[in-house]
């Protein structure tokens, strides 16, 4: 899995250059040969569709189109899909990532799959992944 963290500096930077603690929205995007967990701080992303638009702009093999309902659909290379979304809180200092909720546009994410996949993702193996969200969201 590739984890992308969008930042106000330039929409997407390497995960190491993002703030050490922040929260926002995320989407899980799966392609024919790779999958992505894309995190975007709340000040950048009002809707999950905005994350998908930014993601597709950064890839030569993908395009996106907005539907009348405001959702964003990926098209281009066959095999790409959006597997859900929700909210997150990342704390690098404590090595924790909390994921919760769902996306009105893309539905519920598969938390167990994300947790299991992050355990074998370089740089994320030692993160505790909480699927209930922070205590103030329970």
Structure commentary:
- The protein is mainly β and 138 residues long.
- It is 13% helix and 36% strand.
- The protein has a single domain (2-137), classed as Janus/Ocnus (Pyruvoyl-Dependent Histidine Decarboxylase, Chain B, 3-Layer(bba) Sandwich).
- It has 2 helices and 8 strands, in the order βββαββββαβ.
- It has a 6-stranded mixed β-sheet with strand order 1-3-2-6-7-8, sandwiched between helices. Strands 4-5 form a two-stranded antiparallel ribbon.
- Strand 2 (21-30) and strand 3 form a beta hairpin.
- The longest helix has 10 residues, at 48-57.
- It is globular, with a radius of gyration of 14 Å.
- The protein starts with a strand and ends in an 8-residue tail after the last strand.
Topology:
Layout (H helix, E strand, L loop, with lengths): L1 E4 L15 E10 L4 E7 L6 H10 L4 E5 L5 E5 L4 E11 L4 E5 L10 H8 L9 E3 L8
Parallel strand pairs: 1-3, 7-8
Antiparallel strand pairs: 2-3, 2-6, 4-5, 6-7
Give the tags.
single chain, mainly beta, Pyruvoyl-Dependent Histidine Decarboxylase, Chain B, six-stranded mixed beta sheet, 8 strands
CATH architecture: 3-Layer(bba) Sandwich
Provide the domain count.
1
The count of β-strands is 8
Main pleated sheet: 6 strands, mixed
Number of helices: 2
Helical proportion?
10-25%
The structural class is mainly beta
Round the Cα radius of gyration to an integer and report it: 14 Å
Strand order of the largest sheet: 1-3-2-6-7-8
Specify the CATH class.
Alpha Beta
Mean pLDDT metric: 82
**What is the CATH topology?**
Pyruvoyl-Dependent Histidine Decarboxylase, Chain B
Beta-strand residue fraction: 35-45%
CATH superfamily: Janus/Ocnus
Shape: globular
Low-confidence stretches: 11-16
What is the element string, with H for helices and E for strands?
A: EEEHEEEEHE
Report, as a whole number of angstroms, the end-to-end distance: 27 Å
């Amino acid at each position: 899995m590739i984890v992308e963290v969008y930042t106000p500096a330039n929409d997407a930077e390497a995960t190491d250059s993002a703030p050490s603690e922040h929260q926002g929205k995320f989407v899980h995007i799966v392609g024919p040969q790779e999958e992505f967990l894309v995190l975007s701080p709340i000040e950048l992303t009002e809707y999950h569709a905005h994350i998908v638009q930014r993601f597709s702009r950064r890839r030569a093999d993908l395009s996106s189109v907005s539907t009348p309902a405001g959702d964003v659909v990926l098209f281009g290379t066959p095999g790409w899909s959006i597997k859900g979304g929700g909210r997150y809180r990342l704390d690098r200092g404590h090595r924790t990532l909390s994921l919760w909720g769902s996306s009105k546009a893309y539905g519920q994410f598969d938390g167990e799959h994300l947790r299991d996949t992050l355990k074998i993702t370089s740089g994320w193996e030692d993160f505790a992944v909480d699927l209930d969200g922070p205590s103030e969201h329970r």
